[in-house]
Fold each of these.
Amino acid sequence: SAVISQKPSRDICQRGTSLTIQCQVDSQVTMMFWYRQQPGQSLTLIATANQGSEATYESGFVIDKFPISRPNLTFSTLTVSNLSPEDSSIYLCSIPNRGLAGGSSYNEQFFGPGTRLTVL
Amino acid sequence: GEDVEQSLFLSVREGDSSVINCTYTDSSSTYLYWYKQEPGAGLQLLTYIFSNMDMKQDQRLTVLLNKKDKHLSLRIADTQTGDSAIYFCAERSGNTGKLIFGQGTTLQVKP
């Protein structure tokens, strides 16, 4: 399986500031994904980060609030802007992977360790 | 729209089997996944099943898929205290990376 690392692992931020989260993968991947897990909740996809093009955002998420960069095939950043306590969540990056079952489809989906953000 | 439902809590005794159930609504799902999340940790991919299969076994884990009823289950044989965690099922449509997750089932294993 791929190795995915995220920085920072956790942070406490003040209201109105921004936090940039980094995701590094040990292999080249075309698509990277950013998910949010609010306290006690399930995971929700924020956006798909494609190298060389703008990110594609899911309903309810906008670029001004969650700008994403994807400078190369192994790295992406997610910024959470103008923080409010409601942004307190775990943010996870995710990549698809071709599993041992074979075929051309990306049948596995791995997640990074997550960044735990607390906004005061 | 797409929806995935799970029961929220399951308690079993060490050594027993655990069965965690999940239902989904998207009939075009291609893959269905089970993830494990331990406290303070990320998501660990446990297993997954392609939608044209009805069963997959991997050591202590057995996944059953009833596509007609859109029902997925994860059976953990000989459950251990280290299996205590939250288990998420998720479904994926097509070849995108968008997974729709259930709310998670907290598995409590009593010694």
Amino acid sequence: EPEVTQTPSHQVTQMGQEVILRCVPISNHLYFYWYRQILGQKVEFLVSFYNNEISEKSEIFDDQFSVERPDGSNFTLKIRSTKLEDSAMYFCASRTTYSTDTQYFGPGTRLTVL
Amino acid sequence: SQQGEEDPQALSIQEGENATMNCSYKTSINNLQWYRQNSGRGLVHLILIRSNEREKHSGRLRVTLDTSKKSSSLLITASRAADTASYFCATDADTGKLIFGQGTTLQVKP
């Protein structure tokens, strides 16, 4: 069964450094998402992406964040200058249609900012 | 309460018993999805119920949706120790993003 994959599984970085989290969505999916989950808290929406542009972003997704689909398979989340409070599990998700289908999640990348 | 609030926050039962988790939400939805998360791991999709459906089954899972009360329930029958996890409901409105609740932590004792 096709699945969403994410790399790395765990990333440790120093405050102020740039990180890129990578995702490979399911191949025939058209809509892509990033969510994050701070330890012990609920999953929060960051951004949605369709047709090579951002469809919607949350208040969390400020100028320090960017997303890109550099080729036909990868979907990346970049944090330009990490802060301690960016430490969280970051999940990528994808689905085929706008709002009628299941959203499939990757296993997540645990980001630790020191 | 916030969109997608589950109760109880924690539930502890014996293997073989049924577990019921509830979710309430505030705005109109297209569908509601339930996910499971084992400790520190990814989100596993369990079941999706559309706004025009009232009940759905998948194996030992039964989900109901009451749009008039803006609530849903997830029933796990004949629970197993392997069902120990956190369970989240997530609502899907017009924009496509999912809004998650705080989750219910289920412990099934062998």
